[in-house]
Amino acid sequence: MADHSEHTNRTPTPGDPWPWDERFRDMPWPKDPDPLLVEYCSDLPKGKAVDLGAGTGRNSIFLAGLGYEVTAVDASQVGLDITANRAKSEALVIETVLANLDDFHLEADTYDLVVIANIHMMPPDSKKLFKMAINGLKHGGHLFVVGHDRSNLGVHGPPLPELLYSVDDMQDLFPEDLEIKVLKNEERPVGDSPHGVPDMAVIVLGEKK
User: So what's the architecture of 31-208 in CATH?
Assistant: First the structure.
């Protein structure tokens, strides 16, 4: 299972969603969207969006509020139930899909935006995930990826350096049919951190050729 950390050190362990069902059930989770998603995706053309590893749906809710037709995918039924209940309370419609990203596939040429926020896998698995995501994009659609930079080791994100992102390594993880528009480090605000310590993030915004 991938790491949609939403401010935890959630590390990728294949298969079992139950620990995350328990954590989503027992812990308070942020309702505000990732601030970097807001910064980089608010003005993109609207259409169909999919949030891969949606967790409790903070980014899905935001995208639906912008006018996207949103699908939220996660391996935790509890997380998806929280997402659906929030959407209902805000008069939004979000499709929820229970699936593990390790063996999930998007319908080809379908989405205008694919979001992968805080999903940390080993590089070969990340490369596979990104390829699947790009295959699901329409031509001209956008992929937005954000995750914890390797400089955060021990503070934010997974506890293994190979699971964290770096700008230098990211370029090689994307196929040639994605035109990279943004690939950079940017600091998340302290207010988005459970530790009061800024989180250095890696951001990728690309457009399918």
Answer: 3-Layer(aba) Sandwich (3.40)
